[in-house]
Design a protein that fits this description.
The chain is of the alpha+beta class. It has helices spanning 9-24, 28-54, 66-77, 79-88, 99-103, 109-136, 146-159, 163-186, 190-206, 212-228, 231-237, 249-280, 291-301, 403-410, 412-418; strands spanning 308-309, 312-317, 323-332, 335-340, 352-359, 365-379, 382-389. A 6-stranded antiparallel β-barrel has the order 2-3-4-7-6-5.
């Protein structure tokens, strides 16, 4: 039964899978429009982040510790994904979860890739456009150029990453982004969804991971400031173009955008694949948890060895010639279980031993047989000994091979029930 407050992980998996089916079948105009909106929303969150970072200690205000500022700025960056989820938009990185529907063969790979490509292009166009609009607004000159300096410094640092660094940071970033999207599916209220987004997104930004769509805004904005703001701005912030030598188109596309995108794809896909393996395959995790199903699972998990209670006595003979008499408790395919009063009888696990079995009706007596001690447990004055049967010759004559042979000598009907 579905939880009225939130969806459980199994229910999230099927909801995510079905969402992938819907996304794959949207018409191009709808996908393009939603993708442009996602680029706008993420860019606004990125700009919000830049302004918070820039304002720390400005114009005599209290200068907070760097960690606190980073935390606050990372939290406000969540605005982007909050708008994507609540207002509705198609974000390239979040759409990695579509791989669940593909794995279940509900959509074709071609449809998934087509959706990804359209979303990527739409996100890129919108992000660059917002970067240009904000640059044209002159926002970068605010706070005596601090906003512009922060923006160009962020872009330069991103272009300074090695290919492997950008790839790994992209992987970790989108694993968290897709987990945030995953958890929003569980929530049924606006508050639920915002809280589900807040911590994963704050975490990836604070830890310095790389998001390809955010970088489609951060780096173009830095490039616009570097090449179009003019020397007047650089003099205002006390910098030269040489201070940002890593910031160029080659490093933007090849050094950052390509590896970050590949990392984002891998990180998001691994989240989707893992949850598909856990919940969407035909396995126990997605079984119907009805009372009848649970009973069947309990029966499957119970011990299947049938034990046949048998009255009689057992005589054990040790290598030193001593003998101990015990009461036969039961017989199964695992051997016999007997109870002895003398708990001081010394036997070691796996020790081979001779034993006689005599039933109380005195109709049979198996003499000179050999077994292997499986276990010995002592409780107070009682000693429980389990012995496994082995094939034995007695005066070159087979006495018995296994427990069925023993039971056949005791009760044919019961032995057939065990067979």
């Amino acid at each position: 039964m579905s939880n009225p407050i939130l969806l459980l992980p199994k229910e999230i998996a099927f909801a995510a899978e079905n969402a992938g089916v819907v996304k794959a079948n949207l018409d191009k105009i709808t996908v393009i429009a939603l993708s442009i909106l996602a680029g706008v929303y993420i860019s606004l969150g990125a700009d919000f982040y830049t302004i918070i970072i820039s304002g720390n200690g400005f114009a005599g205000s209290v200068k907070l510790p760097a960690g606190i500022v980073k935390l606050i700025a990372s939290m406000v960056f969540s605005l982007g994904l909050i708008l994507v989820v609540l207002a509705g938009a198609e974000l390239f990185t979040g759409n990695m979860l579509m791989i669940m529907a593909t794995a279940s063969k509900k959509i074709k790979v071609q449809k998934m890739l087509k959706m990804w490509c359209i979303a990527y292009v739409g996100n890129f166009i919108a992000s660059v456009l917002i970067a240009y609009i904000l640059f044209s607004s002159g926002q970068y000159k605010s706070m005596n150029g601090n906003i512009g300096l922060t923006a160009i410094s962020i872009a330069n640092a991103k272009c300074h990453l090695t290919f492997s660094e950008a790839l790994i940071k992209g992987f970790l970033c989108n694993a968290l982004v897709c987990l945030a999207v995953w958890m929003t599916i569980s929530g049924k209220t606006v508050t639920d969804k915002i809280l589900a987004i807040l911590f994963p997104i704050t975490g990836f930004v604070a830890m310095g991971f790389e998001h390809c769509v955010a970088n489609m805004f951060f780096i173009p904005l830095g490039l616009l400031i570097k090449y179009s703001a003019g020397n007047e701005f650089l003099l205002l912030v006390g910098k030269t173009a040489g201070d940002f030598q890593n910031l160029n188109l080659f490093n933007f596309f090849i050094g950052n955008l390509v590896p970050v995108t590949l990392g984002n794809i891998a990180g998001g896909a691994i989240v989707g694949i893992m949850y598909w393996v856990i919940y969407c395959r035909s396995n126990l995790m997605n079984a119907d948890n009805s009372e009848e199903s649970i009973k069947q699972l309990i029966n499957v998990g119970r011990r299947k060895t049938v034990r046949y209670p048998t009255d009689g006595t057992v005589l054990l003979y040790s290598d030193d010639g001593s003998t101990i008499k015990g009461k036969l408790k039961d017989i199964s395919k695992n051997g016999l279980l007997a109870i002895f009063l003398n708990k001081k009888f010394q036997v070691d696990p796996s020790e081979k031993m001779k034993f006689d079995i005599t039933t109380n009706n005195d109709q049979i007596k198996l003499i000179g047989n050999t077994g292997v001690l499986k276990r010995k447990k002592v409780y107070n004055t009682l000693c429980y000994v389990a012995i496994k049967f082995v094939s034995v010759d007695n005066d070159n004559k087979k006495v018995f091979y296994n427990y069925l042979d023993v039971l056949k000598k005791i009760d044919m009907k019961k032995s057939m029930a065990l067979n």
